[in-house]
Amino acid sequence: MIFAEKYNVHTVPPSLRPAAAWLSQQSDGLARALIECEPIVLLAWGDPAALSLRDRARLLEVYAERDVVGNLSDHHIDQRALWMFAEPGLADAIRAVWSGAGDSFQLELLRIIELGNIAACLDLVREVALNMTAARYNRIYAARALEACADEVGLRTLGADLVANAADTGPALAPSLALACFPRGLSVAQLITVMDLSRPAREYQVEGFGYALEELWEKCADAAMRESFMASVADLCFQLPHQDYDPVSARHRILANHLSGMCRRAVLASDVDGVTPALIRLLQASERSRDDDRSDDEPNVYALVQARPELKHRLFWADVVFEREHASDDHPVVHFWQLWWHGRRYCQPTIADQAYFEGRLIVGDVGDRRMALSVLWVLAREREDAETALDALAFQIQDQPVIAADLAEHRAPRPRREKELEFEAKQVEREEKRAQRQTRDQKTLLDRRARLQADPSLLTEPKRLARWPGPLELDQLTEWLAQATKSDRMTVADRWRDLEAAFGLPVAEAYRDGMKAIWRITPPERPVWNGGTRTVKRTTLLAAAGLALEASEDPRWVEHLSLPEVERASRHGVWGDHGYPEYLTDLLRVHPDIAAPLVLEELGREWRRTANSYTPFLYQAEAGGLPISPTLRAGLLAFILGPDSKFRDRSGSAQQIMRRMEVLSEGERTAFVRLAKRRFARAEATEDLDRTIGNLAILMEFDARVGVPALEAYLERTADIAGHAELVWARLFGMSQGLVPRIAPMTVSLLSALTRLAYLYVQPDKDVWRDGELTRRDDAQTARNAVLTRLIDQTGLAAHQAVSTMADAMPSPHRSVRFRQLARRMAERDSEPPAWTEAQVRTFEVDHIAPVASGADLLRLVLALLDEIALRFVEADTSSAAVVRSAVDEKAVQQWLAEALELRAGGRFRVHLEKEIVHGDLPDITVSSTTSEAEVAIEVKHAGKGWSLPKLEFALRDQLAERYLKPAYRRHGVLVISNHAPRQWIDKPSARRLSFAEVIAHLQTQAAAIRENAAGPIVATVRGLDAWLSETAKPVVADVSGPDPSVD
Question: Region labeled Disordered — which residues (predicted)?
Answer without folding.
Answer: 411-447
